[in-house]
Amino acid sequence: QVQVVESGGGLVQAGGSLKLSCAISGTSSRSHFVRWYRQAPGKERVVVAALVSRGTSDYQSYADSVKGRFTISRDDAKDTVYLQMNGLKPEDTAVYYCNLAVTGTDYWGQGIQVTVSS
């Protein structure tokens, strides 16, 4: 059974940093796309970062709003995908979700709150 569990959210002041973790079990994340999404109050859920591996190489992509501030990465030994968030802004406040796309099926974590105070 595939499971996706996020951790690491919280409250931080503007300009600060947080690191979110997405622990994956039941399959190897290296074989699939992993994405971080966020959903702010009253807004749609949007993707902020994506990671896919091809052979020994990892490929990352980012939404323009977080490019240069957020970094997505993976620890293969722990099968955990991280989202390092630096230079946080109040507009980064949202519930963050980890998504694992396995052929034809999306697996979502429970979501984790990130709040950035001004």
The total of beta strands comes to 11
Report the biggest beta sheet as strand number plus sense, adding barrel if it closes: 7 strands, mixed
Count of helical stretches: 0
Strand content: over 45%
* Rounded Rg: 14 Å
Helix share bin: under 10%
Q: Write down the secondary-structure element order.
A: EEEEEEEEEEE
The unreliable regions are: none
The average pLDDT is 95
How would you classify the helix and strand content by structural class?
A: mainly beta
Distance between the termini: 41 Å
What overall geometry do the principal axes of the alpha carbons give?
globular
Task: Describe this structure in a few short sentences.
Helix content is 0%, strand content 59%.
Describe the structure.
This protein is mainly β. It is built from no helices and eleven strands. The chain has strands at 3-7, 10-13, 18-25, 33-39, 46-54, 57-62, 70-75, 80-85, 94-102, 105-108, 112-117. A hairpin with a 6-residue loop joins strand 4 and strand 5. The mean pLDDT is 95.
Helices and strands in order:
Layout: E1 3-7, E2 10-13, E3 18-25, E4 33-39, E5 46-54, E6 57-62, E7 70-75, E8 80-85, E9 94-102, E10 105-108, E11 112-117
Parallel strand pairs: 2-11
Antiparallel strand pairs: 1-3, 3-8, 4-5, 4-9, 5-6, 7-8, 9-10, 9-11
